[in-house]
């Protein structure tokens, strides 16, 4: 299992390239933009897409909500890198669950696929995403009845720590959840690199 978890792909793409080169991971990427589709600000998606291409990746972007389950499965089955964008965490989890994709992602990770998650995409690797409720609105995911997530790590990424406009929400999340989950705060220039041996924080 190899995970690259960050607050911002745009600000950590050089760290991602280091991981790709070091682990000799293939350059065909599926970029899931679903979480961003319900946000007012989603111009960052184009910036991230361009950044991935600058790394030499062959990128296919996809919105899971707009795809059939069969097509989503086929695309995830064949990519070397699965990148999942930031946006609304609850909406992202809702759409992944509607297409029954969580078990598939876990299996593909066991087969050598790299998972790269940004903000919401990083949060869903935790056991449960309920702690994201201070930062994200669960109202955007009315069909989500269960907030259990991928459960790939035993900690819970808290992205954008100390970064505006999320600084206050991050601090409130720490105050409310510090004794309930193992929070791992990272700023926009850091990434968490996870393997079977454990994890380490890359960047500043």
Could you walk me through the main structural features you see in this protein, from its secondary elements to its overall organization?
The protein is α/β, with parallel strands linked by helices and 204 residues long. It has one domain: Rossmann fold (3-Layer(aba) Sandwich), CATH 3.40.50. It is built from 7 helices and 9 strands; from the N terminus they run βαβαβαβααβαβαβββ. The strands form 2 sheets. It has a 7-stranded mixed sheet, with helices on both faces. It has a two-stranded parallel ribbon with strand order 6-7. The longest helix has 14 residues, at 9-22. The chain is globular. One of its GO terms (molecular function) is serine-type peptidase activity. Belongs to the peptidase S51 family. InterPro entries: Class_I_gatase-like, Peptidase_S51. This is Peptidase S51. Keywords: Hydrolase, Protease, Serine protease.
């Amino acid at each position: 299992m190899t995970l690259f978890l960050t607050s911002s792909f745009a600000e950590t793409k050089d760290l991602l390239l280091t991981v790709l080169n070091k682990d000799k991971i293939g350059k065909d990427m599926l970029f899931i933009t679903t979480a961003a589709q319900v946000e007012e600000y989603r111009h960052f998606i184009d910036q991230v897409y361009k950044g991935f291409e600058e790394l030499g990746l062959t990128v296919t972007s996809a919105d899971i909500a707009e795809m059939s389950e069969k097509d989503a499965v086929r695309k995830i089955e064949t990519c070397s890198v699965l990148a999942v964008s930031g946006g609304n965490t609850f909406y992202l989890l809702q759409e992944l669950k509607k297409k029954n994709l969580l078990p598939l992602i876990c299996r593909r990770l066991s087969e050598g696929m790299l998972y790269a998650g940004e903000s919401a995409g990083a949060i869903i690797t935790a056991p449960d995403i309920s702690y994201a409720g201070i930062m994200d609105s669960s109202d955007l995911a009315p069909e989500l009845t269960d907030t259990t997530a991928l459960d790939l790590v035993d900690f819970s990424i808290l992205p954008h720590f100390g970064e505006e406009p999320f600084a206050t929400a991050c601090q409130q999340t720490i105050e409310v959840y510090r004794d309930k989950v193992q929070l791992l705060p990272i700023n926009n220039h850091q990434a968490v690199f996870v393997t079977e041996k454990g994890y380490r924080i890359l960047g500043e």
